[in-house]
Amino acid sequence: MSGWTRKDLVGIVDLSAAEIGTVLDTAKSLQEISTRSIKKVPTLRGRTIANLFFEPSTRTRISFELAEKRLSADILNITGSTSSTAKGELLKDTIRNIESLKVDMVVIRHSCTGAPHRLAEALNVSVVNAGDGINEHPTQALLDMFTIREKKGRLKGLKVLFVGDILHSRVARSNIWGLTKMGASVVLCGPKTLLPPRIEELGVTVTTNLREAVKDADVINLLRIQKERQDQSFFPSIREYAIAYQINSEILKKAKPDVLIMHPGPVNRGIELSSEVADGPYSVILDQVTNGLAIRMAVLYLLSGAKSIESKKE
């Protein structure tokens, strides 16, 4: 656990390149657990982790639960519809009640931007951000970086292109923070209405021209149109969006021959990418899912020891 002293993981923006490297290296060492005949180690035996998912989730929730089971933790699963928040209780009070039951860690996904940060400040137990509003999704960015490094052998110097709904994407934000810190070149592409204003200030290149953007790309990470976070129409129609910004075999000819195709899911085939690309030889989408387990195991492992390093909040 050398180099890791944090109680919480609420965002990539606060992490140093060395800390990101620590998580990636730890995940690498934990990968083999899932290849054993008995896929379990006693690392977190006796620890209790509360999973609070106030937004729909499949990959992230299952990945965290499986990571916790791999490390032998006891698990408490709570959703918005089954918690007292549905009766009007404040989220902070809900968590404090859970904390009073002596849980050791809280994993939270919430539609409110900043919810994990506020909880981390208020609680003594470790808090892991599993996605908050349109802010960050740190473990997704970490598993994306892990996958790229695993396939390419490095992050520094690579051109990583993000295409799609950048404006509403917490995945894009966390990746921007992480990849730029690790020395990669990040390019963002999408309709002008889905590109955040002044995003160039984060050290990225921005364009609305997909054919120009894919030139010499080492990695293309596709982002779905997040209709659930949009209160207005940002382009004329899904069909027109697909015509202008879908990644298909023809567009891929302009990228590097060994380009990686990534997607955080869920995938909307025929919109952000064609089925032939999603299922093709360049796709590492399923590798991302597999690597997400190792990353989340690494995060839980590192945070489980952080409380002995950093004193609890008063």
From TrEMBL:
Metabolic or biological pathway: Pyrimidine metabolism; UMP biosynthesis via de novo pathway; (S)-dihydroorotate from bicarbonate: step 2/3
Segments forming domain Aspartate/ornithine carbamoyltransferase Asp/Orn-binding: 156-303
Binding site for L-aspartate: 87, 170, 224
Entry's EC annotation: 2.1.3.2
Gene Ontology biological-process annotations: 'de novo' pyrimidine nucleobase biosynthetic process; 'de novo' UMP biosynthetic process; amino acid metabolic process
Keyword Transferase (UniProt): yes
Catalytic activity: carbamoyl phosphate + L-aspartate = N-carbamoyl-L-aspartate + phosphate + H(+)
One term of GO molecular function: aspartate carbamoyltransferase activity
Keyword annotations from UniProtKB, A to Z: Pyrimidine biosynthesis, Transferase
GO cellular component: cytosol
Positions of the Aspartate/ornithine carbamoyltransferase carbamoyl-P binding domain: 7-150
Annotated residues for binding of carbamoyl phosphate: 59-60, 109, 137, 140, 265-266
Family under the similarity heading: Belongs to the aspartate/ornithine carbamoyltransferase superfamily. ATCase family.
Record function comment: Catalyzes the condensation of carbamoyl phosphate and aspartate to form carbamoyl aspartate and inorganic phosphate, the committed step in the de novo pyrimidine nucleotide biosynthesis pathway.
Name of the protein: Aspartate carbamoyltransferase
Species in which this protein is naturally found: Candidatus Abzuiibacterium crystallinum
